[in-house]
Each structure stands twice: as structure tokens, then as C-alpha cells.
Amino acid sequence: xMLENKKCLILGVANQKSIAYGIASAFRREGARLAFxxxxxxxxxxxxxxxxxxxxxxxxxxxxxxxxxxAQAVQTVRExxxxxxxxxxxxxxxxxxxxxxxxIETTREAFRVALDVSAYSLxxxxxxxxxxxxxxxxxxxxxxxxxxxxxxxxxxxxVAKAALEASVRYLSADLGLKGMRINAISAGAVRxxxxxxxxxxxxxxxxxxxxxxxxxxxTIEEIGNAAAFLCSDMASAITGETVFVDCGCHNMAL
Length: 254
Hints:
The protein has helices at 19-29, 40-53, 67-81, 108-129, 155-176, 201-211, 220-230; strands at residues 7-11, 33-38, 58-61, 84-89, 133-143, 181-187, 242-245. The chain is α/β, with parallel strands linked by helices. The N and C termini lie far apart (40 Å).
């Protein structure tokens, strides 16, 4: 098993349709030990049964927009496990109006929130957890093709994901000094809770299926398989990369 006895933190699981759930399921299959974060009581009620289903060892609160909350999460993980081998960062947010209005109308506050939660949280989490990350540890985050090309209604989230992908490249240099790796998966269209906030996503979902080289959309299980590989020793020489898991959609011209 690729991740046998690896201590893996999953940040951002929302429900059983989320990408983070697909990743956690694959990790569990590959022998990983799991712990899950949650934000607020409503999400906690969703995360608890998922953790129980997947054999999670504990859950912990973590608001990635708060340095104090991240620091408390580190302390909790230190008390429970001592160290950590893998961190999955599957966290993003933008105000709803910023995903429905033209990008040019994005407010300063909506831009700040989107970049803070969706991009800055990655280096913030890496920096905070660095003292308890084991040699050879791996970090994985989730991005989307809207970081590189204009996707209708993705708007400020596309800008945030572009910052996230650049952060992965710069973090790879910093973490590499300690023998640690970081990568991103650019996933294809998936019907998740987050995707439901994008206007006209149902129409886009069908378009991606028609355009993709494999003429289908991806599954969260396929994302999970790619994540398990990237976070395992099988990918020990891969870092700073954005790996597309989208049935070849990004290669095709409309």
C-alpha cells in the first residue's frame, strides 16, 4: 500500500461528494491514517460521520483565514500524532456575488476574501505545520483550469487559483530545502458543493464532457487515485507541479 501508516491531514472535506472525500477514501485504501478538519458546527456534523466511515483518528477545528486557529490546529495534531506526513489542502471560498457578476465588478473585499482563503491559506498552513512535518512529507492542494484560461463565471476564483498555483511553485523551493514536496491537482468538472456556487455550472459540466479527450467527466475516485500517487514515495521526485486530472479537457481547443 502506497501510504501505509502515513499520518495524513485532510483539510476541507464537506460531504461524500467532495473532492477531499474522494482523496481521503483513496488514502484509506492505501493504508493511511487520517484526521479531518472542520469549520464551524454545521460542517462538524458532516465531517464526524465521514471520519467514522473512513476510520479517521480524530477531527479538529481549523479556520484557515485565522492564524490563531491554524496554530491551535497544529497544537491539536501535535498532541494527537506528534508529527504529520501528508497535508491535503482542499479549501477555497469566494463570496457568491463575486461568482455571478462580471469579474470587472469584483469588489475589493470579495477579492481579499477569495485570495486569503483560497490562496494565502496554503503557505499559512505549510508554515505553521512545518515544525511537525516529517522528513519526506508531502503537501497537496486543489486547483482548476480557470487559473490558466478564462472559464465563464469562475471570475475571482480563477485569479485566486492562479495565485495558488504560483504559491505551489514557490513553496516547492522552500519545502525542498527540507526534503519535502508540494504539488497541485487541477481537477476536471465535478458536481461538488463548491461547484454549485458557480453560475450555470450544469451547462458547463456538459460542455466539459463534450470537449474532453476522453469524452467524459472525471470522478472523485480518479482524483483520489492521483492524489494517493502524488503523496506517496512513488512520486518522490515530483514537486512544484500542477497535475491535470481532467480526462484531457485542458489539451483540447474548442
